[in-house]
Amino acid sequence: MENNLPSLRDFSAESLSHGNVKLLEEAARKARIDVLTMVTLAESGHPAGSLSSLEMYLTTYGVANLTPENCNSVDRDYVVISHGHTSPGAYATLAAWGFFKPLDAVANFRLCSSPFQGHVERNVPGIDWGSGNLGQGLAAGVGFALAQKARAHDGRVFVLMGDGEQTKGQVAEARRIAAKEGLSNITALIDYNHIQISGRTEEVMPVDVRALWEADGWGVLECDGHSFEELYTALRDGVNDEVPTVIICHTQMGKDVSYMEGVPDYHGKAPNRDQYEKAVRELGGNPDYLEKAKARRGNPVPSGRKIVTTINNLLYGEPRTYGSEKKTDNRSAFGNALADVGTLNYKREGSMPLLVFDCDLAGSVKTSDFAKNCPEWFVQTGIQEHATATTAGAASVAGVASLWAGFGVFGLSEVYNQQRLNDINKTNLKLALTHVGLDVGEDGMTHQAIDYVGLMRNMFGWKLLVPADPNQTDRATRWALREAGNVCIAMGRSKLPVITNEGGEPLFAGDYSFEYGKAAKVRDGEEGAIFALGAMTWRALEAWELLRNKGLNFKLFSVATPLEIDQKALEEASATGLILSVEDHHYHNGLGASLALAMAEGNLHGKLVPLGVRSYGASGRSEDVVAAMGLDGASIAAKAEACLKERK
Amino acid sequence: MENNLPSLRDFSAESLSHGNVKLLEEAARKARIDVLTMVTLAESGHPAGSLSSLEMYLTTYGVANLTPENCNSVDRDYVVISHGHTSPGAYATLAAWGFFKPLDAVANFRLCSSPFQGHVERNVPGIDWGSGNLGQGLAAGVGFALAQKARAHDGRVFVLMGDGEQTKGQVAEARRIAAKEGLSNITALIDYNHIQISGRTEEVMPVDVRALWEADGWGVLECDGHSFEELYTALRDGVNDEVPTVIICHTQMGKDVSYMEGVPDYHGKAPNRDQYEKAVRELGGNPDYLEKAKARRGNPVPSGRKIVTTINNLLYGEPRTYGSEKKTDNRSAFGNALADVGTLNYKREGSMPLLVFDCDLAGSVKTSDFAKNCPEWFVQTGIQEHATATTAGAASVAGVASLWAGFGVFGLSEVYNQQRLNDINKTNLKLALTHVGLDVGEDGMTHQAIDYVGLMRNMFGWKLLVPADPNQTDRATRWALREAGNVCIAMGRSKLPVITNEGGEPLFAGDYSFEYGKAAKVRDGEEGAIFALGAMTWRALEAWELLRNKGLNFKLFSVATPLEIDQKALEEASATGLILSVEDHHYHNGLGASLALAMAEGNLHGKLVPLGVRSYGASGRSEDVVAAMGLDGASIAAKAEACLKERK
């Protein structure tokens, strides 16, 4: 689509020409009318902040090498809108720069199934990050900037933010990562209009914006956020600076609409018809535009662009096989596989970079070997999990492979909403969680991630792998790195026996290859069935042997993908009339609950006995904690035997 | 228990006497031996940070008015340990100050079912906040300080922190709340030893500690963190300051053990026997202590103190009744009930304060009337949800009633781990979530809290109320405010019809009173049963009427407590052979999943059809979004009819 705006992209001019300023001012006038028409027609939305950010939007999308033509590639600049509720301003700006027809957005704003959602989403061309929950945008921008740097690409990243969100802790975390990593390729712009929902920012929650950005190592510029000349010059100065730069843009809430200027109420309130007419006339427009837009609403609903799932392009190497003579912890098997893949690809001509993020736990989560072998791909982000989750997620859709390894409670429980936003943004993150379940050593209840299956069950896109032993971990790790989309692999802390078949050979080696959604049948029997979640398989196998010694033969299935129940295995198990599920996870929300739902939906009968965690665990050796919960082999066997007796 | 240490509590001395310094130094020497013995015996734990914090611990517990005698009351000072992994140092200090016998902790550290967990928990006398996940302690301290202020009590709060956690965003949020609220009664101490797990803090993640605390409005002092004189003087100066004060304590990791000093490896590694002997001899102790402790390990396991659940003491007023002639949104009914309770108790002689927290959403979450009527009880914490969750939680166990109201995605999804820590800490928080489910207006998928039941199902103590209409909301709100422990009430945005009985009278009024765990039977029938979650009841009732008009009679149950399934209602429903569950929540983890698990555990048969959310929702009017998900009355009825046909 054509537009009549001047390209400002190479910053060749030291300042904006008078003619270009006039063109941009006219574009701003029209965009303001678009904003007002959008929210009036939808009868909801956020007009005043959109008007406040408008010159920032128009200038940023003008200087950024982000166009309708290149916006689906990765060789370009990125723009992140952190205050996603100002979507009307963003849509009006993107239309002005030719990403789509203005009326498409104006007519279909906040209409069910339209891409022009209340908060910006990635299926609108030109939107690089879906936001809405405040405070996440800067961390996403840092992820894009890290990816650019790792790819040795000279693209830049611009992050537009509100002033209310300057108080969010995640912003500070992201600032520090940018400064530490020397990301001179990122520029943030703050819409500093001093108004948030509850009133003036100074009264709602005072924050010394300039001092905090400076303390965290950023260059700070200030400008009139409604002056195209000043915005252009500040952006140009920021781009040429050697540190990450923030531009504090002094603006006015509701700019150019007399009754909205400086009024907090218009943060999230649409004008009525009379107010609309008044505003449009003030802007020299024709209020009939509203009727024209109304006639187009939903007629048709625009489809938006398709988000293509990112696919990694690495060499994944050959699986390692761990023999049954020795116990190995799954996290070490993961670390070995990761180091294998890293070493195979590091410095290999044409390889995609594989960034591995760490929040001060590399030794425990076994990414140290990778760090040693691939130092430039290892990103230490400190004890800053919220920013790291978003940063690693954004990087994963910007031309690099991206993995974050952390304890279960830090990589998921602490940052659940960030991982949910990664899900919404259809990122390609690989998340390695260690110390899950009760298997955290003696660290106690705060560190026991007994909720990771439950948390992932709230998502729609994440895949979750919970391997049974080091061999399955190796294969699952390589599978995860290759698989498109968000994949999480969850592991405990302890060394585990290798699971073997009845002949004593490793079950998850040789011909075995990892298959998502398939339960592994470890042993057969007729009296009942046991489903064990991942690393609980060896304990269930202990139980199986105790039962067999009493002449009680159970089926034993090992489940590595609790979000995708193997319906065939479940039917076979259900036919026995008795199913026990075994997991060191909250029994409400893990494997047992998944089986119960699958049985109910499939109308499969039989008694289900969900063995799991029913209170916060104690601090002690893992085997003591597990036994105290009745989840050791002997307890499982006793429970299975009791259930059989009850039935007879 | 007696101790031979001097009381430093009234700060009457300008500085510590030489004699007192000597007594404290001797206590520190013994405590260091206790620390080393603990971790050596448990073969795990965090020795080096414990040694680093030891003088800070001993001095703080010396000056704090927190004693074995008063530690179960609220009229005293509070001490929060944010770097909870340094528990050995804390236990050794508490023992030195007479809270329990040293050998109780030394022998039973990190032993299953002992209170002396790897990370400090509240069942150890003298521990005011269980921690372990870094960065939360300051926010807890702010909650205690706010409670003291609201109670007009002159008690003080001391928060001990690590240096690694200075990067956590939540710390910055908590700082700002303290400064804005003028909490001169709080003092923070940072153990600045420059070492974290991965190496020197300056290299892992640089942070200008002094500049950030100053920028956020705190007074900053510095001292030698191993000098009792300097610590005492700094604490005295901080207590007398008119702003919140932080003391940067310059310390040495592993202090006084030659081979541990400045070595990151000893962050989380216990010494072996030889190393233990060497360390104890360096400290002038007798290594035989280890054997003595070993003999006592688990023999018996000490029981710890019982955490008494806090009970609010307010007047709760009479319920309001909303007539069926008018629709009302549940959030307004909540806001009215809250304002009623506030007004009844505000300025009432002897009333417990009721603090209501807001993160810049009062108008939308309907706490504005409360704020107007009870201004001194209303705490505006800005867009800082992480700190607010912890602050509100801590306040709730410090002599005030505490409620936080926010959108579902902000009050729970964004701060899930903070609410989990509130659960672990057995707080007494009331959490009002609005805009849950698909009922968020046009804000779109980032704002749709379709996971709140699933998140709460990961907890053990939280109660969750999802009322069906304004009448049930009113009664549930008053019930929640009165009920001990953590209670969450979840509401959508839209105005809803009042649910009536077959005679047309409001069902949740008159003789009705809210009962936790009881499903309300709205209509009867024999063909099958429908369970509707909270505010979906009116849509299910629409479906019920459509079905009845076709001669198909279903039972209809309204479920307000999805975490506690009404087993009797479920049995009655199951007997029909067909159950549909209806909720605007992820179908994996909400009411349907709870019913499935309860059916499986109860061995109840019948087909269960869980109707719920199966993809992220669009941005549009709530009724459009709900219809697009097949959750409107007509779709529910059609599904029920199809299920009946399938069965026949």
From TrEMBL, chains A, B:
Start and end residues of each Transketolase-like pyrimidine-binding domain: 328-498
GO molecular function, one term: metal ion binding
Cofactor: Mg(2+); Mn(2+); thiamine diphosphate
Keyword Ribonucleoprotein: no
A Pfam cross-reference name: Transketolase_C
GO biological process, one term: glyceraldehyde-3-phosphate metabolic process
PROSITE patterns: TRANSKETOLASE_1 (PS00801)
Keywords: Magnesium, Metal-binding, Thiamine pyrophosphate, Transferase
Entries under InterPro entries matching the protein: PDH/Transketolase, THDP-binding, Transketo_C/PFOR_II, Transketolase-like_Pyr-bd, Transketolase_C, Transketolase_CS, Transketolase_N
A GO term from the CC aspect: cytoplasm
Annotated family: Belongs to the transketolase family.
Record note on quaternary structure: Homodimer.
Protein name: Transketolase central region
Organism field: Aminobacterium colombiense (strain DSM 12261 / ALA-1)
